[in-house]
């Protein structure tokens, strides 16, 4: 009944930590330990209840037998007072037989009482130990969860900003620079084309003005 608690006491400290190191999931393992402890506590509680019932039964039988012995003592006295010595003798003999039974029942009752006290002490000890282990379990689970979270963060940091990512950023940066250069080149070509067209238009306008001037000069001569 107490095998798990005895085994558990040997696991406290470094041995428990070593066991947790080998466990796939310390949180689940610790929960399993607590469930096993709770099961054993319930078993001991049932045993205590049975023993308490046995103690009460022994006490009742002892008290019944004690009352019967007292009754036989009174009956023997009455028989003697009535002058019936033979009846008194037989009543006393029966009283002695029941006294032996009474003493045996008293011994059984005392033993049952001792067993109840012992089981209650063990049960109390188990419950106290359970509470201590519950506090330790909560602490270990919190530490395990913190360690697991830290491991996940560290793994993320190890891959964060990796060479692959950096090369990717550099490649995209070159692409953006290329796009910007192409945009600037297109803008310059646009301005260049506009300047050429403007010069050609200006040249055409000059030729028109020159021809118009010549026509005016001819017109003046004829006039």
Keywords:
single chain; 223 residues; mainly alpha; 5 helices; rod-shaped
Short description:
The protein folds into two domains: 158 residues; 62 residues. Helix content is 93%, strand content 0%. It comes from Pontibacillus halophilus JSM 076056 = DSM 19796.
H and E string: HHHHH
Number of domains: 2
Helical segment count: 5
Overall 3D form: rod-shaped
- Helix/strand-derived category reads mainly alpha
Radius of gyration computed on alpha carbons? 55 Å
Largest sheet: none
Average residue pLDDT: 80
Low-pLDDT parts are none
Beta percentage is under 5%
Structure description:
- This protein is mainly alpha-helical.
- The termini are far apart.
- The longest helix has 75 residues, at 85-159.
- It has two domains: 3-160; 162-223.
- It is built from five helices and no strands.
- 93% of the residues lie in helices and 0% in strands.
- InterPro entries: PspA_VIPP1.
- Belongs to the PspA/Vipp/IM30 family.
- This is Phage-shock protein.
């Amino acid at each position: 009944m107490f095998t798990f608690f005895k085994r558990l006491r040997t696991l406290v400290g470094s041995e428990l930590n070593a066991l947790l190191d080998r466990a796939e999931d310390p949180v689940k393992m610790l929960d399993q330990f607590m469930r096993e402890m709770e099961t054993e506590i319930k078993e001991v509680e049932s045993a205590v209840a049975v023993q308490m019932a046995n103690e009460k039964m022994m006490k009742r039988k002892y008290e019944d037998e004690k009352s019967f012995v007292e009754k036989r003592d009174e009956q023997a006295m009455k028989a003697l007072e009535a002058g019936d010595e033979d009846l008194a003798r037989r009543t006393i003999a029966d009283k002695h037989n029941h006294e032996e039974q009474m003493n045996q029942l008293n011994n059984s009752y005392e033993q049952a009482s001792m067993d109840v006290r012992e089981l209650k002490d063990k049960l109390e000890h188990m419950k106290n130990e359970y509470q201590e282990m519950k506090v330790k379990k909560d602490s270990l689970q919190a530490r395990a969860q913190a360690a697991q979270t830290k491991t996940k963060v560290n793994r993320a940091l190890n891959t964060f900003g990796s060479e692959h990512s950096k090369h990717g950023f550099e490649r995209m940066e070159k692409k953006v620079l290329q796009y910007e250069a192409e945009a600037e080149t297109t803008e310059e070509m646009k301005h260049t084309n506009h300047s050429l067209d403007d010069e050609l238009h200006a040249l055409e306008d000059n030729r028109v003005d020159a021809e118009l001037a010549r026509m005016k000069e001819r017109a003046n001569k004829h006039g």
